[in-house]
Task: inverse folding
């Protein structure tokens, strides 16, 4: 597939899968043997991504990702986004206890790198500012600015 098609696929998966919560998008556009490089080896790619989408929509029913920049080079697509939502449901991040609803709004920066082969997402590298989200939810103290040396 060409670079433009891979960009369009990345945006389609983000819109239908994450913004709309359409889990069939995962089966359609993520490779069964794909790899989320932030997860332990052997993690089932499709099952994991469906769990992430479900957990995010449970915690943030109004979940939305806005893409700010997107670049593609061959089979790799990279984009920067902000995830927004209102925490009105229980949030399971998969790392620690479930966070009870706080009613707070969040805006969380993300970076995504995806590899597409034959119209399927085979590899995912993803970074999100989890500490910032936890601070916005009020479950982690705000970080203090580091004093500048003179």
Result:
């Amino acid at each position: 597939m060409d670079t433009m098609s891979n960009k369009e696929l990345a945006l389609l998966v983000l819109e239908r899968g994450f913004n709309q919560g359409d889990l069939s998008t995962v089966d359609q556009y993520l490779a069964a043997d794909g790899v989320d490089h932030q997860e332990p080896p052997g993690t089932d790619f499709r099952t994991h991504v469906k769990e992430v989408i479900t957990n995010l929509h449970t915690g943030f029913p109004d979940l939305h990702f806005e893409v700010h920049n997107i670049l593609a080079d061959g089979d790799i697509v990279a984009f920067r986004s902000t995830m927004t939502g209102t925490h009105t449901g229980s949030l399971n991040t998969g790392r620690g206890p479930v966070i009870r609803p706080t009613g707070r709004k969040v805006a969380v920066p993300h970076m995504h790198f995806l590899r597409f082969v034959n119209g399927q997402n085979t590899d995912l590298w993803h970074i999100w500012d989890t500490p910032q989200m936890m601070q916005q939810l009020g479950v982690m103290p705000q970080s203090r600015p580091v004093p500048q040396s003179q």
Observations:
- The CA atoms of residues 47 and 126 lie 17 Å apart.
